[in-house]
Amino acid sequence: MEMMSAAAQKLDFLNLLVTELRNQNPLEPMDNQQMAAQLAQFSQLELSEKMNGQLSTINGTMEKMNGSFEGAMLVAQLDFARSLLGKQVSFYEPDNGTLVTGQVEKIEFISGRPTLRVKAEMPDSGQQEYYVSLEGVEGIE
Questions:
Q1: Which residues are 122's β-sheet partners?
Q2: Domain 85-140 part of CATH 3.30.70
Q3: Taking the complete model, does pTM exceed 0.85, yes or no?
């Protein structure tokens, strides 16, 4: 069965309506309210199809904008990470939760996100290397 658009169905209905009006029995005319109700239903269906098409276009545009936004955010994060190279940053040590300060030595991508490689001098164990996400930076010196 072939799918027809609401506009095509409405046109078919109007052709059928005109044919019925031409050939109706003058003693038993068609019900005007029923014709008007059917015509209104076709108009509503046509509007719904147009809205669905417009929503699809909007969704496509939003997806493109999302991709552009994510790319822009990644560039901004990378620029921020670059600005931290050689600087002292503070972050919470993952194992015991103490605040640690160390120097940013390098930027690496982990799971597609810029991550800082930080060397910090620890009182107990000497120099340690940490991987710190940008969100994990608590302070910059």
A1: 126
A2: no
A3: no
